[in-house]
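User: Can you help me understand a structure? I only have the sequence.
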Amino acid sequence: MSRRNLILIGVLLLVACALPFLVSNYRTFQFTLVLVYAIALLGLNILTGYNGQISLGHGAFYAIGAYTAAILMDKFGFPYWATLPVAGVVCLVVGFLFGLPALRLEGLYLALATFALGVSMPQLLKYHHLEKWTGGVQGIVITKPDAPFDLPLNPDQWLYYFTLTVMILMFFFAWNLLRGRIGRALIAIRDQHVAAEAMGVNNSIYKSLTFGVSALYTGVAGALGAIAVQFVAPDSFNIFLSITFLVGVVIGGLASIPGAIYGAIFIQFIPNIADELSKAAPWAIFGIFLIGFVYAMPFGINGAIRMLLARFGRKAQNSGADSTVTESSIKTKEASS
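Assistant: Let's start by predicting it. Here is the structure, written out as tokens:
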């Protein structure tokens, strides 16, 4: 990683750490959800952006993670932080098992299979035999944790910093995973799965494990989201949530780790802006925003930023080259005179 990128990351971390003291508690809660959605979008991006498997059902894994955390806290008295690894492991297993039969499906057929998973999840959570665990249509109410060690932070600020720490750790793990041999294998399967298998890549294992890791990320995000919202109910995890995640991945930028943050900001704040602009038809305004972003940034927000930086870099190089040519011509004229 270049020195410029390290400096930029350091500045962004300083801004992120100062944010809860500069905004209201409600805004802090909203930015906590941005961090939660960033983790979920990164998990979906690993599957769709880097491995090429389209999923319209990741809201189901988000729901599984949320309910795992809520049930452990409400029924068994687990501390909030201990629910995250359990939710991650549960979703890892469920995602891996779902990925095994999905190996026979590709493209739109896989999208339809995951769509069915997303559609059926709210109905499964309402199933009367599971009501003693899930609370049925009433859901489960949990308590937002207080700051430990008598830290001078209110619950919203503490949960923001806790979520920020978890997000940084999971982003670092994803960056380390995708920049190595595994990441190259995932991209090879996405671009040319036949050639990748000919080169010795086990497509079946990689695709199933990618599904599991992607579900793990989304499950951890679901657990954090449940702790932040303090409530889970089946209708909170309808198919629209899965579609929203896919929208966030596309808007942020496919096969892009920073794109998960940009996409999370989009899906958290643009609906609120659309609602403020038009109470009668907020989703029509949201659709206009969505079309505008896709038209102006066909490679996502991260792709647009990279293109702008590359353009400014070329201009700087060209201006530097022009100044060098000018100086050399001046020196040549002085020497000839």
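Now, to help you interpret it: Residues 28-240 form one domain. The CA atoms of residues 99 and 207 lie 7 Å apart. Let me know which part you'd like to focus on.
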